[in-house]
Write a structure and sequence with these properties.
2 copies of one chain form a homodimer.
Chain A: H1 2-11, H2 23-32, E1 45-48, H3 53-61, H4 70-73, E2 79-82, H5 88-101, E3 106-109, E4 112-113, H6 115-121, E5 124-129, H7 132-145, E6 146-153, H8 158-186, H9 191-199, H10 206-215, H11 226-242, H12 248-265, H13 273-280
Parallel strand pairs in A: 1-2, 2-3, 5-6
Antiparallel strand pairs in A: 4-5
Chain lengths: 291, 291
């Protein structure tokens, strides 16, 4: 998601320096847009979009990407805009660790929703948390990258917490859609009719309308993998655990995604969670046996 | 829901006989519309909309409402249109019991979704199951009572199964909304911002948009009570049990509704399920402590 976001920023005329652990990707980006390869000391905002907290920690504090780590090389008053999905406790700890070594830097915790499609189109939902001056600094960036910008709190960690709330609903709704459609199949109801009915009733959800059709058709392209929700619902469970909140549905859904991945299907589209329900129902995981 | 449905049927010029265990309600109806009080022997279609399978059994087979029970008094070739929400196994058994004593009658299992509002407006979703000639007979009635008519199977029980699939999603989505909004509150995120965000993202559901605002405001009117979902999710669990399907989310949600009712809040609006989450999170059930 980071590269299309970088391209959107560059397209507005901002000078953008792209960094990637994969040198080829960074070079491909550099050929497309105006950048300063040696401009780390002039960075005003460091936008981070990586896989997990370990990667963030590594690029900020170790020599992995930049000698000395980015945190030590940013100029005074620069703003770190951390947009990856991490657990709230990690988001809080990262901000605190940066503040400990570089109290002059701004830090905003700003995860997003909308996926690669939203990153490309500049229509992400952004859940930003940080002190008022830091959020103020980020607004022009957010207006380029996203469509719906929510300032959800005044301290890093609250953006991640909001993202966890969002992912709780997304993950549980995918699992509920799979549970319901697998029950319809097991009851001998035509799955096309069942889906059409629940899509148009009070039973509907964004995920049901989006993933439902892919649940009852043969597996196709992977839009978002089972593995992503193993991670994201894992973060939800961690978030619930650290804020000591009761989240039984999120835990059930997480275990279903994890079991599906452990069964070797982690790279399938997340709609294929229905295969696990079908197996547990004693049915053909491909959904055979129905017209 | 039965009375507004009867009124919609009467309004089209059909002769409608209203029966109710509460004599006053039946009489109030009779004053409004053209009926034949003594017309049981001329009934073409008996539409049943009551609370549970016991009531259906009682009115069909006992003297409770009509001496001899309605099943024995209907004319040859009449159609029983059972629209109450019951477990699939009950729907199947009722049809079989009618067929055993009156093989000449038609029987359609046709539960609805849309509530009192849909019953009044004639915009119910109807999930009809029965043999083709019986469904054919019911179509003119369904066109008056409903907006979306789905023929979901050829045997009684499949309508009830489809309704269970629908209610699984509705009940789990209410619980997921409560779980997510209570987590947001526990994380110190402004609940208005949290709700606005998830309503507009891939996290949204029909229930989140409908019940969410009522979850974060002081309890108001009761649109649909906690008790209703205790019953409906109980039926979902029964349906899953009899078709031997795996439904962990429905079971979790059911237990939350039951625990809320057992705590003395069964007659509150179902949005108030969030009170149970708040209590389990160690928060004020009223949602106090936030601006």
């Amino acid at each position: 998601m980071g590269w299309p976001m970088a391209e959107n920023l560059a397209r507005t005329g901002l000078e953008v320096l792209g960094l990637d652990a994969l040198t080829e990707r960074a070079e491909a980006f550099h050929r497309q847009v105006s950048t300063r390869n040696d401009g780390i000391e002039n960075i005003e905002a460091l936008v981070i979009m990586v896989v997990n907290a370990e990667q963030i920690r590594s690029l900020l504090f170790s020599d992995a990407l930049v000698v000395g780590g980015l945190a030590s090389r940013l100029p005074t008053d620069a703003c770190i805009v951390q947009m990856s999905t991490v657990a709230p406790a990690d988001a809080e700890a990262l901000a605190a660790d940066v503040a400990a070594v570089r109290p002059d830097l701004h830090y905003v915790d700003a995860p997003v929703s909308g996926g690669v499609v939203g990153a490309q189109a500049g229509t992400l939902s952004i859940m930003a948390a940080g002190d008022a001056p830091s959020l103020e600094r980020c607004r022009p960036l957010f207006d380029i990258l996203g469509q719906a910008i929510f300032e959800v709190g005044d301290r890093p960690g609250q953006g991640a917490a909001m993202k966890a709330v969002n992912q709780l609903l997304c993950g549980v709704h995918i699992a509920a859609a799979a549970e319901a459609l697998a029950l319809a199949e097991k009851s001998g109801i035509d799955r096309q009719i069942a889906l059409r009915l629940v899509q148009g009733s009070a039973a509907s959800s964004w995920m049901l309308r989006d993933r439902g059709p892919r649940m009852i058709e043969p597996p196709g392209d992977v839009t978002s993998a089972i593995d992503i929700f193993c991670k994201d619902l894992g973060i939800v469970c961690d978030a619930a655990s650290s804020s000591r909140a009761y989240t039984p549905l999120a835990h059930s859904a997480h275990q279903l995604f994890v079991a599906t991945a452990e069964g070797g299907e982690g790279r399938l589209d997340d709609s294929q969670l229905i295969r696990t329900y079908r197996r547990l129902n004693g049915c053909d995981p491909e959904g055979g046996g129905q017209a």
